[in-house]
């Protein structure tokens, strides 16, 4: 019985297997497209001011973004100091100065 099914439908079975494998590969690759960049903390910056500036761009609340940055940077507290480097979401490098965001390319 199984031999008969294999002889008649082997191409369908192989095609279905290929579709499943290709779908799995596509899902794995799609999940790894998150992009991050580093921000150097400036004088007067806090996690809350940085998160407030970035929250609109990433469709996250300031609270959620503070939690995300704290988790990704393994911060035990919300206290940061000038010169610290933080990983934040996004594809382009940002410079946060005077509470404004500027792209590394100089374009806004």
UniProtKB/TrEMBL annotation:
CDD domains the record matches: LysM
Keyword Magnesium assigned: no
Keyword Electron transport part of the UniProt annotation: no
Membrane-spanning segments: 12-32
Entries under InterPro entries matching the protein: LysM, LysM_dom_sf
One protein family per Pfam: LysM
SUPFAM superfamilies attached to this UniProt entry: LysM domain
UniProt keywords, alphabetically: Membrane, Transmembrane, Transmembrane helix
Record domain LysM: where: 37-88
Protein name per UniProt: LysM peptidoglycan-binding domain-containing protein
Protein's organism: Bacillus salacetis
């Amino acid at each position: 019985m199984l031999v008969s099914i294999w002889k008649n439908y082997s191409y369908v079975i192989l095609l279905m297997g290929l579709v499943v494998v290709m779908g799995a590969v596509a899902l794995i690759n799609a999940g790894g497209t998150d992009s991050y960049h580093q921000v150097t903390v400036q004088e007067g910056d806090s996690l809350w001011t940085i998160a407030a500036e970035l929250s609109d761009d990433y469709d996250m609340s300031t609270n959620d973004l503070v939690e995300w940055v704290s988790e990704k940077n393994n911060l035990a507290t919300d206290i940061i100091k000038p010169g610290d480097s933080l990983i934040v979401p996004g594809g382009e490098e940002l410079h946060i100065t005077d509470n404004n965001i500027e792209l590394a390319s100089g374009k806004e």
